[in-house]
Amino acid sequence: MIYDLIIKGGNVVLKDKVIKNDIAILNGKIAAIAETIDHKAEQIIDASEQYVMPGMIDTHVHICEPGRTEWEGFLTGTKALAAGGTTCYADMPLNALPATVDRHTLQLKAEAAHGKNYIDYAFYGGLVAGNLERLEELSDEGVIAFKCFMSTCGTDHPDDFSNVDDYTLFAGMKKIAELGKILSIHAENALITDRLGEELNAQGRTSAADYVSSRPVFTEVEAVKRALYFGKETKCPIHFVHISTAEAVEEIMNARSGGQDVSLESCPHYFTISSEQLEKIGPAAKCSPPLRSMEEQEKLWKKLLEGKIDMLTSDHSPCPPEMKYSSSNNFFEVWGGITGCQNSVDLMFDEAVLKRKLPITHFSRMISSNPAERFNIPNKGEIAVSMDADIIFIDANRSYVVEEEGLYYRHKHSPYIGRLINCRITKTFVRGKIVYDLDQGIVGKPIGKALKLKYGRSHLNLI
Q: By the 8 A CB rule, do 109 and 100 touch?
C-alpha cells in the first residue's frame, strides 16, 4: 500500500494521551497510527518536536457573505481560520444579508459559500420573531443548530437579524426540542443593558469604561437563569455562547447537574484581555458581552481549569475599519465584535497549556472533540483511525509577535496586534490536504466542503 501522506515523529495528541507516533493518511482519512510506519507514501512530512493535534472546530464564526462581503467573505475568513489552526467551522445566521432565517436565505448562503472555503463548514439557522414556522424547514436543510439573541441586536435593515422576546424564546424552544436540535443563546438582559446605556449616554458618559458598566455581570447571569428555566420547561437542549462570567458558568453547571441538557462556550478574549486594558487597546476590543475586570477574568480562568468550560470558540465578528474607528468618541456607537479567529488556538495554547499547565488533551477536547460531539459533526474532532485527517502542527518552542501584515482578514485590525505569543501554528491539513504552511502561507485552492450533519443531539461527557 502507498499512503498519500505520512506524518513522522510528532507528539500526537490523542483523546486521552500524548505519544510520539507516526500518522498515515489515505483518501482524506487517518489510515494508521503507530510508533513507526515504514510504508511508502506520496509525501512524508517530519513533525519532530511539534505537537500534532486535531484541528479546531470553531462553532461560532460570523462570515458576512452574502450581503456584507465587504465586512468579511468566505475566502478571506477561511484563510484566517486555516492559518489559525481551524479545520472546520459553523457560520452564524448573522451578519450576512439577508439573515439565515428560512430555507430561501439558507440556500442563498450555501450558494455564496460554494467553492470559496479553505476549510469545511456548516451553517446555523436563526430564531427570530416571526420565523417559528420556518424552523422545521431549516432543520430539514441540515443546519447545525439554531441561534437567538436575548440582547438587542441587528439594524434597521429589513433583512437583518433581530433579537427574540420571551414568548418567541419559549415557543422557539418548544419547536426546537421537537426537532431534536440545539438552541445556542446570546444571553444578556436586553431591557436593562439598553436602558443603562441610554442613561449613560444622556449623562455624556460614553467611554470604554462606561460601555462596560452598562452591561454588568448580573445582566448575563439573569438571562442565563431565565433561559435555563425556559429550557427546563420545554426540554430544549441549550448551548450558551461566549459566556464571560464565572457566576453564569456555575448556574449552567448546576442546571446540568440537575439533569438539564446544556453546554457552554467561552472565547479567548475573555481570558486574555481585561476591561482595564480596553481603553488602551480601543475599539478593536469592543464586544458583547463586554470584557470583564481582571478579578472576574481570574474567576473565569478558575472555571476553565476546573473543566467547567465545555469549548472555546472565536466569535469572529469582523467589520470595516470605519465602523470601528469613526470620528465619534462615543464607545457605544462603535461596532461591537472582535476580529480574532486567526489567533484562537495559538493564543489559548500559550495561555492555558504553556502558562497555566492545562493538560494538552483537555485543551484538545475543548477546541475539537467537544464541539464535534455536542453538535453531531461526524468524523471530526479527534486523531483516530477512520476519522477525517483534519490536523494541525503546533510548535511550542517558537514565539512570535502578532503583526498586521500576517493577518488574512479582509480588514486587518485585531486586538492582538503587538501581542507576543509563545507558540505557533506551522501547518494545517483539511482531510489530509495542506491548506496552510507557515513558510508558504495559504496553499492551493479552496477545498472546504459543506458538512452533511447527523440528526439528533449529543450530550457531552466531560472529564
A: yes
